[in-house]
Design goal:
Nucleotidyltransferase, domain 5; five-stranded mixed β-sheet; alpha/beta; single chain; 7 helices
Length: 193
């Protein structure tokens, strides 16, 4: 089984504050279970996570819908939880994925972003990272493969840009189309067409 991960953060390096975690379970037939949680900024900083000034400035330029998460995470809202709590909940959610967490492929949008920042957050909280490193997958690499025209296969966008769950769903639908195209090409190559 595959899980598409998307993080909204206050930086681009491991150890950056994570504002929200969005994830969706998917396979070639569609999307299944979803996970979405927002994280209190004060809690994250208490675990040693940091914010980057340029990313804070970037957030100031985003849509009001996207900024809603940013604002809740900074306001100590009852809708947000502590970093350790959210990571523990995410681990529990992963364990219920089809096929089990040991076989789960975790997709992030960049080999050096979502998965790496998530791993760093688990380490900061002294929690075991539940995904095997060899099961990390890079969505950015998939959509950049020369044998698939990634941009041409991008589905129509739904939801809010920079909402972790909406982004994870969009990337999942896109990945399904790309993987189908890739496997169709493999079939054509192997049959000599």
């Amino acid at each position: 089984m595959n899980v598409m991960l998307d993080l909204e953060t206050l930086g681009t390096k491991p150890g950056s504050v994570i504002l929200s975690i969005g994830a969706v379970e998917f396979d070639k037939d569609g999307l299944y279970r979803e996970f979405y949680k927002e994280i209190d900024v004060v809690s994250s900083k208490g675990w040693g996570m940091t914010a980057d000034a340029s990313t804070l400035e970037w957030w100031g330029k985003q849509s009001p819908e996207a900024r809603a998460t940013f604002d809740r995470c900074h306001a100590n809202s009852v809708e947000v939880a502590g970093l350790g709590v959210v990571l523990t909940e995410f681990t529990a959610w992963l364990h219920f994925c089809k096929g089990g967490v040991d076989k789960l492929k975790l997709w992030g949008n960049g080999s050096d972003f979502d998965n790496v920042l998530l791993d760093a957050a688990y380490r900061a909280c002294a929690l075991d990272y539940p995904i095997k490193y060899w099961n990390h997958r890079c969505f950015r690499s998939l959509k950049g493969l020369p044998m698939v025209n990634g941009r041409a296969l991008e589905p129509k966008r739904a939801g809010v840009h920079h909402n972790a769950l909406d982004d994870a769903k969009h990337q999942s639908y896109w990945a399904i189309g790309l993987l189908k195209e890739l496997y169709a090409g493999q079939t054509a190559l192997s049959s000599g067409k």
